[in-house]
Design brief:
This protein has 12 helices and 4 strands; from the N terminus they run H-E-H-E-H-E-H-H-E-H-H-H-H-H-H-H. The protein has helices at about 10-20, 35-50, 65-80, 90-100, 105-125, 135-140, 160-170, 175-180, 190-195, 200-210, 215-225, 225-240, and strands at about 25-30, 55, 80-85, 125-130. The two termini are about 35 Å apart. Keywords: ATP-binding, Ligase, Magnesium, Metal-binding, NAD, Nucleotide-binding.
């Protein structure tokens, strides 16, 4: 079985955004020109009105002109405000000081620089930083800890990538944004599916199988996906557990944060 968008998903997310932003003036979103951030931005627009949505476009030397134009066009189409900050000066300074020439390290610096910028605007505008990560990325750890993972709320965090595409069509995101090859925009020519080693349609079937507590053999029998691919996704899930949890604290008191202290 494949995951499919539930009929109540849109309205539930809208109510979630309204509830979580009651004490805030703005939803602050890093808008990349890709499908996930476009969907989140439009959901916030629907929930709060365009006047309470502030998008930050943060291109770098590896960003495509198409992505920048698509992000600007989306804001103009739905009447949302935005600003643009070029990242190269910031990330180059970090890279030089830290001697971080490794592409993964440079990508993490870029992602964490975006987080700093978003929280600067959120603090000054009495806003919340709205995450754009989907369930497929969260379960595989395909995000930077304290980078794109550093957010206040994650409206599409319980939607697989294939469900995000369904929702994008429902809320009238432009088709050329929906059909783009997904990319984190951290390296020239980089794509998510190449990094993950699997197509999102297959990835979501595997993860949905995990969600239903199926074994790797059962998922293979249901989907026909190669066992090596299924095992690699399971390894990604297990090795990225720390990204989905608050920092571990040794238990000393009656109730301990992150363990048995319920908020």
């Amino acid at each position: 079985m494949k995951p499919h968008l539930k009929e109540y998903a849109y309205q539930s997310i809208i109510e979630f955004i309204k509830c979580q932003t009651e004490q805030k003036d703005y939803a602050v979103i890093g808008l990349s020109g890709g499908i996930d951030s476009a969907v989140v931005s439009k959901l916030c627009c629907d929930a709060l009105g365009p006047e309470r949505v502030f998008n930050v476009i943060m291109p770098s030397g590896v960003s495509s002109a198409e992505d920048i134009n698509d992000a600007q066009d989306l804001c103009n189409k739905f009447g949302m405000s935005y600003t643009m900050i070029h990242l190269d000066t910031i990330t180059n300074a970090f890279t030089q000081v830290l001697n971080a020439e490794n592409p993964i390290l440079k990508g993490n610096i870029m992602a964490r620089s975006r987080m700093i910028i978003l929280y600067n605007y959120a603090h000054s505008m009495n806003g919340l930083v709205i995450g754009t990560g989907n369930k497929s990325e969260l379960l595989t750890g395909y995000f930077t800890k304290y980078g794109d993972g550093g957010v206040d709320i994650s409206p599409i965090g319980d939607l697989y990538k294939t469900e995000v595409r369904e929702l994008a069509k429902l809320i009238h995101i432009p088709e050329h944004i929906i059909s783009k090859s997904p990319s984190a925009g951290l390296r020239l020519g980089q794509t998510d599916e190449e990094d993950l080693g699997v197509r999102y349609c297959d990835l979501d079937e595997i993860l949905y199988g995990f969600e239903q507590m199926k074994s790797a053999d059962e998922i293979h029998d249901d989907t026909g996906i190669d066992m090596d691919v299924i095992d690699s996704i399971w390894d990604r899930y297990k090795s990225s557990t720390h990204k989905r949890k608050t920092p571990l604290i040794p238990k000393l008191g009656i109730r301990t944060i992150g363990c048995d202290w319920r908020e």
